[in-house]
Each structure stands twice: as structure tokens, then as C-alpha cells.
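For the sake of transparency, this paper describes our internal protein records without simplification. The record that follows is passed on verbatim for readers who wish to inspect the format:
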Amino acid sequence: MNKIFTLLVLFFVFNISAQNTIHFDKKFVQSEDKWVAFSADSTGAYPYGFIYIDAQAGLTFDWEGTFKIDPTGKFIPKRREIDEQMKYRLQPNNNLVAFIPESKFEELHINKVPDWLKFYKTDEESIKRLYNWGYMYNGWNECQKALEFLEKAQKIDPEYKGLRVELAYSYNCLKQYQKAVDILKIALKKEPLDAYTNKELIYAETKNGNLQDAENVCRKVFKEVIDKTYNSENAYNVLQAYYIKKDIKNFNNWFAEANSYLMSDQRFKPLAEQMKVELKQ
């Protein structure tokens, strides 16, 4: 009876050890240049492989095979049967993967850096690559990571096309609004009528509390910028800022002045009307 109890205890300890070896707490966009495992299937096998970024395709998963974890916590791999690489494009989402600990690389017969990865690292420090990676990470809402690439690019050539507004996007995302305002004003000296750059400036000014400045930029955009893509969004951002401050007078004045833009876009019309109703109560 004591032997059976001891075996059960040992099995329980080994099982807990196996479960604690990997933790599914990383998003795809946090996993660049990492060996990762996906959740186990019904047989207890974990698909695993390497996530990297392809300059053309974005996040890519190179599937290596599967592994199981024995009661002692050892990884038992089963490599894919096809010799050719099998790659899957990953869309950023909330699915979580686990980083494979380096202590398990030998058991899986893998190197920390796959030999083939060098073909994707030929221009790592070029400004084009730094900008593109920053742009991608901003698009995935990983703005702090994006900033690492973009600030490196800035040191190489601060005049690189699109770099300042991309930096501003990161700053706005990270709530560093004054930095966004400062760099956008520099960008607008060269392209004063760029619709997207003005949009980011209006957003930054509203978040920074400079609502009169935001209004002035809006008026200029409404009057002078040919691209009308962001007019409704710009108008709404100013209106929302007044709503948050409970500044009824300026809210009503701006609602009247920007009414044609607010009411012409179904994304913002019901929100603007709801805010107006709430401020009356």
C-alpha cells in the first residue's frame, strides 16, 4: 500500500513538473525569433516551431513537428515527416503560445538560431528594414516594440519618408502626446497638407489638452486638405475631448461647426448624438 501511495505521489509531482515547463502566455507578435509551442492536441502532442518575420509576408511560423512531455518532464519530439520546410502565415490575434525553454533545445534537437534564419537577416540594420519592422509592429499595436526599430531608424536618417509620422503614431499609442506633437509639427513643415499627418496631430493635441490648437488644425484641414478621408474622425476627436471635459459650451459650438462631418459618417454620428444627449442631462 505504501509503495502504491509513493508511486502516485511521484506521478503527481512529475505531472506538475511537466505542466510547469511551458506557459502559454505569449502572443504571436511577442514571439519574433523564438521557438514556440502551441497548445496540445487531443493526444497530448504540442505542435512546435519557429516564429520569425518575413519582410513580404509578415509573421511566419516554420513548423518543426510535435512533441510530448513524459512524466519526468522530458520533451519527446516527433519531427515532421516532410523534409521541406512548412511555413504558415500568422495573423496577429489573441491566441497564446509558449516559449520553449533553452534547456529543452537539446531534447528537441534544435539550435537556438536555425541555420536558415540568416537568409532573412541580411539587412537588419538598414533604415528600410527598421522602418518596415516599426510599421508592422505599430500595425499590431505593439508600439513599444515598434519604437525600438523606429528610433534606430531615426538615428540613421530622421528625414526618411514617413518616419516622423510613424514615430508619432507610436508616441500617441504610448500616451507620449507631447513627443507626438513636437515631431508632427516638424513633419508638417515639409508636407503641411498631408491628411494622415494632420490627423495624428489633431489626435495628439486633443489628448494633450490643447483643444483650441486641435480646432485650428481641423479648420485648416477642412478648408485646405484635398484628401477628406479623416475629416469625420478629426471632428469627432475634438468633440469627444470636450465631452470628456464636460465643457458643454465648447462642445455645442464645435458640434454646430463640424456638424456636416459628424453627421455624414455612420461610425461617429450615433456617438456624437449620444454624447450631446448625455451632456443635456
